[in-house]
Write a structure and sequence with these properties.
This protein is mostly helical. Helices cover 56% and strands 0% of the residues. The chain folds into 2 domains: 40 residues, no CATH class; 41 residues. Helix 1 packs across helix 2 and helix 4 crosses helix 5. The longest helix has 16 residues. The protein is rod-shaped and about 70 Å long. It starts with 23 loop residues before the first helix and ends with a helix.
Length: 97
């Protein structure tokens, strides 16, 4: 794996970076998404603080679209149960068209 790091130019090609070489949190990320993807993120965002929102925040738009498409005009309770929300939240989502 090629590294875009001036310090790595002096290291012979036979030595490869391994996930076990990485420190702490970055190692956990590499174990989750792979070394190549981790290095891409490091190259793009080196030295930056990155906020990663909760999964449900990322997928909320899809859930809300499904609720609007499945809404029949009188199925608030069914949608609330299906999507584990309150009927109040279902109404709010429907009204946000």
């Amino acid at each position: 794996m090629q590294l875009k790091d001036q310090n790595m130019e002096k290291v012979p090609d036979k030595y490869q970076l391994r996930i076990s070489d990485l420190p702490g949190e970055i190692r956990a990320i590499a174990e989750l998404i792979g070394l190549k993807a981790t290095l891409k993120i490091a190259s793009e965002y080196s030295g930056e603080t990155i906020y990663i929102p909760k999964h449900d925040s990322i997928t909320r738009a899809v859930r809300d679209r499904a609720i609007r498409e499945e809404y029949t005009g009188a199925n608030h309770k069914e949608l609330a149960k299906k999507f584990n929300l309150t009927t109040r939240i279902i109404r709010k989502i429907i009204d946000e068209k």
